[in-house]
Amino acid sequence: MRILVTGGAGYVGRALTARLLRESGVELHVLDNLASGEQRLRALDLTRLTVHRVDLRDAGAVGALMRALAPSVVFHLAAVHYIPACEAAPGDAVSINVSGTVNLLHSAIERPKFVFASTAAVYGPSERPHVENSDGIGPVDVYGLTKLQAERYVEYFHALGRIDAVIVRLFNVIGPGETNPHLVPAIIRQISRGERKVRLGNLFPKRDYIHVEDAAEGFVRLARVADKPAAPLVSNLGTGQMFSVREIVDRIAAAAGVQLEIEPDPARMRTNDRPLLCASTQRLQALTGWLPGTSVSDSLRAAWNSRDADGFV
Fold first, then answer.
1. Angle formed by the axes of helices 296-305 and 245-256, to 10°?
2. DSSP 8-state symbol, 30
3. Residues of the chain with pLDDT under 70
4. In the chain, what are the domains?
5. Which of 16, 22, 56, 178 shows its CA 20 to 30 Å from the CA of 212?
């Protein structure tokens, strides 16, 4: 089986690539522009995969690679997903997250299984766990808008019979190997500098956090679902549990063996930050017979212990 992972040097992408390397009978390829740095590939067995340094926005290069490989499975994870970066440069977010996805879809041949990494950010604010239906859709930021647009193109190419699509709405990922300054890396970086009063943005949000290796496992399991429905298969990938910023800080402090105070930082606050974000996991369990099992405490301990390798010291 020939598999292509886009964004395979990224955060979840690298964990997914490492997970796929444990599979037998797989010919593995990675498409990545290496924006996160070539050093991230050192953690992978490069003798068992081929890396293609390609920018998704280059339609010609993407098309040539897809024709040459004709992969039977495509895991499409490459994207700009740091929300402040998307808000600061929305054109870049659209060109990569939407146009780049279209370039990949348009180049698909022989109807591959196309597993698209979408996001919980496509949902509208809600006080209940999000269920995979159209009623709850309503992104509140550029990132969510780009991913929703990309979902529509995935649906279109699925309807054309060009791909067999799986849309995975991923919730907040934590653990080793983070590539963007989200909440957990921001806390770890400040502690590593010796600070005991951490400056953070909005303190009210509660989020559903999933360990990066559980996220990778979820992608693999959802790709194995055999059904070929008229519409793409859509599933959340989260835990069904929420934790506040304060709870995350306390767990990282426990892992680091320090006492921390929180100082709100207006410069880090987003005006469109939703208060709650939590996955319904019923469909995930029904489709795969599996649920993520790594606790938030263990995930945060692993993130703290990898701070040297992740460049936070």
1. 50
2. E
3. 313
4. 2-172+209-237 (3.40.50.720), 175-208+241-273+294-305 (3.90.25.10)
5. 56
